Amino acid sequence: MKITPRWLLLFSAAFTVSGALPAADLLPVEDPKAREALPEYYTIPAAKPEELTDANGWPAMESYAVWHRSHGGPTSNRFSTHKQINTENVKDLELAWIYHSKDGTDNIQCNPIVVDRVMFAPTGGRQMVAIDATNGRELWRFAPELPKSLSLMDNPARRGLMYWPGDAQNPARILFTCGYWIYALDPKTGQPVPGFGENGRANLPTGGTAGGAVYKHVFVVPGFNGDVFGYDVRDGRQLWRFHTIPREGEFGYDTWDNRIDLEGANSWAGIALDESRGIAYVPTGSVKPNFSGLTHLGDTLFGSTLIAIKAETGERLWHFQGVRHDIWDLDMGSPPNLVTVNLHGRKVDAVSQIDKNGTLYLLDRVSGKPLFPFRMRRAPTSRVPGEVTAAYQPSPLTPEPITKQVFERGDITDLSPAATAFVEQQVARSRLGFFDPPDVSRPTVINGLLGGTDWPGSAFDPRTGYLYIAANQTPWIVTLRAEDDPPPAVPATAGEKTYQQFCIACHGPNREGVGVAPPLVGVRHRLSDAQVMHMIENGSGLMPVMPVPKENLRALVDFVMARDRGPDAPAMPALGSVRRALPFNGYPRLLDHEGYPGGKPPWGLLICYDLNAGRKLWSVPLGEHAELTKRGIPQTGTENLGGATVTAGNLVFVGGTKDNKFRAFDATNGKVLWTGDVPSWGTAAPTVYEVDGRQYVVLCASGGGHLRAEKSDVWLAFALPRDYDATGKRRTP
Fold this sequence. Notes:
By secondary structure, the protein is mainly beta. It has eight helices and 39 strands. The strands form eleven sheets. It has a five-stranded mixed sheet, with no helix packed on it. α4 packs across α7 (550-560). The longest helix has 11 residues, at 417-427. Residues 1-24 have low confidence and may be disordered.
């Protein structure tokens, strides 16, 4: 259901695409009284029993025995039927092998695949390797061509890869994206496959980061900078393109008032594909820039939306938008799960999707209708001149949200009186509440910018209908700024030229940021010269080290800090005098005086969710701050970004916590049954496979990234000792 109030249409029509003002001197501010006159709730009806799609038995349970695509297969369910390792013997798990890539360290976010005793994975040095899955010995490596100025998408198989077995005329291949290319490699040699594109790679117009999926001969792959594509997996020809920011004449075009020079609405986490029906399920991100929607009024389809696309043709079958006009960056940032649930006494095929705000969407796989009534709640208006917020936002009762969605003053940490006072001081002048819009020079506290879940997604057990979610519940504090930087000098200074060479790919031509790369507009108000230089020379979080020559470094800093504009630089327009994206203060966490999250724990959670009922079954803290435990504080959980994998041995394996631990939980009750130490946090979900009757669980512990930990180059495989037989029993000496 889509609501387009007449006031929104009239307001949007008052502007030209260029952003010039109507006759008034200043942009109008939304009327809160008009918003409050609307009903507080409305409900999107659930599908009627006769409208539900009966389960067709796909996929067969035996298909979960292989791991030929990241996230375990086309369903993205990360479930394995292997059960040699089980709740009784997992305590004996040991390190089976360890692999070091030795070509650099980086934050690896790819769940690896295993085919015919070989594991395929990317490395910290931005290469692809094949590893003997029984002993960790490297078999081959491939180095894709990289640009001089690297961006986030210039990581091979950054968030996924897959194996295609070939057909009678075409050999098997490993498929992944890197930069603006789809690569097809021979799994035996690592060499590019002749006949696929040009020299084994095909151009991807908007670049790639998430793994694709194959239906018949069509490779469906999302673009990092927008759109979804279908390629012929045999020869690399582009077959179709679906615009996630609609063009004139396309469905959804009228939900925008401006589509010029906009980014976002991109699928950056991953997709799923129903091979039995030929439907690809594609979740999308919010429209950029984040936190300010002045440049793109309207509901902005297909931002923050789950889209069902016909895999053979690229035709939209249905869509379900979550957050409308998403100015909070609360998008659908995790792969969907293709699930079968028991409802009304029958098995129903559905798709589940979680957004970063912790909302769980459970939709019929064919029609897109919700399985339970889906409640929408009236949202507040913005105080920023020219902003036009959506009147309603998701507020479901069933499915139950997986995490707390609104930060309230009662959620302020109580770790200690000092911690409480420190956070209270920050929150005192902040905006709180249900979808409270970001404000100018006044902070807005948002739960969820690292989840609910983020790109790692969830694991689903098709035997039970239970979903396993490694989630975050930590607050962030965001502020828009009215001030801006003066425009760059003409002609370009030496500093701007250096920026164009090294920085523009991630931070954009207008320094407003691309994807998760933050804006640099107004950075002079937030950082010192020394801090900026340190980030350039040493990297920070997802930002790699930038090889800027020493002689150019000072000029680059002068440009970034807006000092090289000259004495005649024009004054910036006042707030509300033009439609322009407002800069913001990056992504600061709301922290206490010791650096711990400013909300009450648990901060990290492992949740078991019964999709049959739309309710959580259990929830336990995930991760530990050992120093807090020593102080007598109960286990708090930590921020995490690894994701869970579930097995038929009734185990849930999870890494990804800040305490550098790898854990096995009892899938029935959340009890920790085994813990292993790893060099850094596990940055991708575990892969499970079996060779010669021995079950292995592999974890990438590369560190770095959002959790800001030491980086590593290591992959670790765990297994039972060799005196266990294939059934999980110890052999008699």
